[in-house]
Design brief:
Number of helices: 14
Shape: globular
Helix content: 25-40%
Strand content: 15-25%
Oligomer: single chain
Distance between the termini: 49 Å
Strand order of the largest sheet: 2-1-3-4-5-6
Bound molecules: 5'-deoxyadenosine, iron/sulfur cluster
């Protein structure tokens, strides 16, 4: 079979990253292998996001640039997938004559057949059908790269929550959970491929299985915890209204479950939460935070916030800042509210001026930066166990201009903090001993955005599993 080059450009969340991996996996049997160079590609897939207007604009401007490349190379197949494809469908073909294929968020498993048709007859295709089930049509996990320590595993897709600002239920369809057996199979396969950490993915993992009468999310975690060779489990994302006592107690009970939860709150004001249709109050949220911290005192908590939701007053924004002071998050993502035409809030009155949104965003980020810096300083002097991932970003060992291998490596602590450390020379020579192993790092310094330390060389107390190594003196 003729070998062909595939370039996938991914914008957006972890779901899109997982989808990109699936796309690579389903197209491999057609002879496609990945390339970073768009110019040499035979097919380009633009995996789009529409959560905010900016992400959508980014997708369209990238597609615009592809028109020139296609002009120089008419055989190039241009495919648009992801949430913009789902939302816009046929109109993308009308608007962009250089696009050959528009495929929605549930159409990935039909890609091989569509691509074959385009290759043989140069037709143009749109497939944005949504289905209510998930196991029958994938997901199919794609390839892993060399030395990959961590992988995503989708456990469900879609969302039934209809937060009034959000486009996800409209572009990812109804909530549907995968059968636990399929999930465990995929986790086992990843471990056999060398992965040591999985992140279970869903828009609202806390309601996993409830619709289909499968097991609860806490039970699923216990089953994943039993997979031999797996070292760590993470999950994202959680909806506070569905965070059960059972799940809270799971932290600190399952040894592989990392001590970190991402619990998006969006606002600290009850009136705004109500108009966002979040279905919890500030005090109910704070109770859950207390519960998490009693069950697992060192749990790291992160969150998402939207500033400038329609009608948000200065007082309501202050309530958000006050919530951040109260919880003292380990980190957060903050976004300026963005109108999405298919989401109800786009028709709400009281739209906030861009300049006010900018000011509020900056005030929120400044406050969090101060908190993060203080929390980081409190870590200095402590020893944290990290799972080593490889050379620190921007310092990949295959950098063509680097003469010697990079000595600065990084990994993540259970809390999800990225920790940098210098690898001693003798270990550098056998770097395969480092990737995917646990290492103890004495934290020596911290800024608001980074932490670094020194490798503590002691025999590990965690006994290595079959085929594993730990960094020992
Ligand atoms: N405008 C701004 N931010 C949004 N998010 C979702 N929809 C919007 C929107 N219309 C944010 C929420 C969510 C995160 C993934 O993106 O904070 O948790
Ligand atoms: Fe969007 Fe709300 Fe569903 Fe999250 S829970 S994906 S914010 S509708």
């Amino acid at each position: 079979m003729k070998s062909k080059l595939l370039h996938i450009s991914t914008i957006g969340c972890q779901m899109n990253v997982y989808d990109a991996n699936q796309i690579a996996g389903v197209l491999a049997p057609l002879g496609y292998t990945g390339t970073d160079a768009i110019e040499s590609a035979d097919m380009v897939v633009v995996n789009t996001c529409t959560i905010r207007e900016k992400a959508e604009q980014k997708a369209f401007s990238f597609l615009g640039r592809l028109a020139k490349i296609k002009l120089a190379k008419p055989s190039l197949i241009v495919a648009v997938g992801g949430c913009v494809a789902q939302q816009e469908g046929e109109s993308i073909l009308k608007r962009m004559p250089h696009v050959d294929l528009v495929f929605g968020t549930h159409a990935i498993f039909r890609l091989p057949e569509m691509v074959r048709r385009i290759e043989s007859s140069r037709c143009r295709i749109v497939d944005v059908r949504l289905s209510d089930t998930i196991d029958a049509d994938g997901p199919v996990a794609g390839p892993v790269s060399d030395g990959q320590v961590s992988a995503f595993v989708t456990i469900m897709r879609g969302c039934d929550n209809y937060c009034t600002y959000c486009v996800v239920p409209h572009v990812r369809g109804r909530e549907a959970s995968r059968h636990p057996e399929r999930i465990i199979e995929e986790v086992r396969m990843r471990v056999e491929q060398g992965v040591r950490e999985v992140t279970l993915l869903g828009q609202n993992v806390n309601s996993y299985g409830s619709k289909e009468g499968l097991c609860s999310f806490a039970e699923l975690l216990a089953r994943v915890n039993d997979v031999a060779g797996l070292k760590r489990i993470r999950f994202t994302t959680s909806h506070p209204k569905d965070l059960s006592g059972d799940l809270i107690r799971t932290f600190g009970r399952l040894e592989k479950l990392c001590h970190h939860i991402h619990l998006p709150v969006q606002s600290g004001d009850d009136g705004i939460l109500k108009r966002m249709n979040r279905k919890y109050t500030r005090s109910a949220y704070l109770e859950k935070i207390d519960g998490l911290r009693s069950a697992c005192p060192d749990i790291a908590i992160t969150s998402d916030f939207i500033v400038g939701f329609p009608g948000e007053t200065d007082g309501q924004f202050q309530a958000t800042l006050d919530l951040i002071e109260t919880v003292r998050y380990d980190g957060l993502f903050a976004f300026m509210y963005s109108d999405r035409p298919s989401a109800p809030a786009s028709a709400f009155s009281g739209k906030i001026a861009e300049s006010v949104k900018h000011e509020r965003l900056q005030a929120l980020l400044d406050l969090q930066e101060k908190i993060t810096w203080e929390k980081h300083q409190a870590i200095v002097g402590r020893t944290l166990q990290i799972l080593v991932e490889g050379p620190s970003r921007g310092l990949k060992s295959d950098d063509s201009d680097s003469v010697s291998p990079p000595t600065r490596w990084s990994g993540r602590a259970s809390s999800n903090h990225i920790i940098h450390f210098d690898v001693p020379d003798d270990l550098l020579a056998k770097k395969e001993l480092l990737t995917g192993t646990f290492a103890d790092i004495m934290i020596e310094g911290a800024h608001a955005h980074s932490l670094w330390g020194r490798l503590v060389r002691q025999p590990k107390n965690a006994a290595p599993g079959k085929g594993e190594t730990t960094i020992a003196a």
